[in-house]
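From the methods appendix. Each design record in this collection lists the tokenized structure first, followed by the designed amino acid sequence. Records were kept in a plain field format so they could be parsed without special tools. The example shown here is representative of the layout used throughout.

RECORD:
FOLD TOKENS (201 positions):
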């Protein structure tokens, strides 16, 4: 799934790049008056062939401006376009969850482990650390170089520094060793458990 998404993203980026490059080349060709300078025989009706050519003639620019639906349609179309572009940008920036992790078996072939299964093991190992009330883990990055994002909900008596140290020494080390990884970077977020205030007196 990640490969398919990456291929689609690369294809879209390539298509947009080609279209923008082509449009920019056409505008530059006419703006610098290159057809006349280089004695190029362009086909009739070629757009933007001279410096005084415009992108849209006045008749095309003002054809629908007198109608009541024109400006609401333009604003709505631009708003939808902006929202789609923002959604696409956020989708690219978001670190996607790993579906599988490639484990080094020592024979050169390797094996794959479900990302969810490894996440469950990491979460269980983190929850077993003294001072951790609840834990969750998500794998991101690449199959051969996974990264961990962990959320630990700490008990009231927990010491954050000690909890992070024990997490590194136990759950993270076990996962790195079992997967045959040289390193397993982790981003750990700590949150205190919510509890009702105690009454005194």
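DESIGN:
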């Amino acid at each position: 799934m990640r490969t398919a998404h990456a291929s689609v993203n690369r294809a879209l980026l390539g298509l947009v790049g080609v279209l923008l490059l082509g449009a920019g080349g056409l505008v530059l060709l006419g703006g610098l008056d290159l057809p006349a300078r280089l004695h190029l025989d362009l086909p009739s009706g070629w757009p933007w062939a001279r410096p005084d050519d415009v992108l849209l003639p006045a008749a095309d620019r003002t054809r629908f401006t007198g109608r009541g639906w024109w400006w609401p349609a333009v604003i709505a179309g631009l708003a939808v376009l902006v929202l789609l572009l923002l959604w696409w940008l956020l989708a690219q920036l978001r670190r996607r969850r790993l579906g599988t992790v490639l484990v080094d078996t020592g024979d050169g072939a390797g094996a794959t482990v479900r990302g969810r299964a490894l996440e469950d093991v990491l979460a269980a190992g983190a929850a077993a650390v003294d001072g951790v009330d609840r834990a969750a883990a998500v794998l991101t990055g690449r199959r051969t170089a996974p990264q961990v994002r962990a959320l630990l909900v700490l008990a009231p008596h927990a010491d954050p520094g000690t909890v992070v140290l024990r997490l590194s020494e136990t759950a993270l080390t076990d996962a790195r060793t079992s997967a045959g990884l040289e390193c397993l970077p982790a981003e750990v977020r700590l949150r205190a458990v919510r509890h009702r205030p105690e009454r005194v007196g």
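APPENDIX NOTE: The CA atoms of residues 26 and 107 lie 56 Å apart.
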